[in-house]
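Two quick folds needed for the group meeting slides. Do the first one here.
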Amino acid sequence: MTTQRIVEYHIARLQNRDRNVRLESVRELALIKAAEALEALKEVYDNDPDIEVRKAAQEAGREIYFHHQNKEKSPK
């Protein structure tokens, strides 16, 4: 499975009814450092009914954002 398909899989799971599934996918997206997931994580942060899932999405979004910011600033 390609990284893109894995990211798409986890983004889709952010809509799952089970909060544990959503939490697991948020954590997986953070591990992958998937910049393409930032908008979906923002949606979770803004709208998820579970505070723990919202906090995890916020942390994951920050981690991914800063990872990519630092990557852009590093010498080539």
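Then this one, please, same format:
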Amino acid sequence: MEVTHQLAAANETLRQLSFRDGLTGVANRRHFDEQLTVELGRCLRDQDFLAMCWLAMEGKSLQSFSHKRIAKVPF
């Protein structure tokens, strides 16, 4: 039973790690997709609205920010 609990805890840790960029710690697309599913379900259940803001930083935009600055962007 203890081994099963340890395995479940290790799997949860890996799942949490898979939602963050290893260098910056910023949430990634996998995390966004999971949270979007959760929030859409909540909005449908509560008959509520959902507001979204999509920020895409690519190419030269990323070069103008240090990793510390990117990590401070709230998600």
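Slide caption for protein two: The chain has a mean pLDDT of 79.
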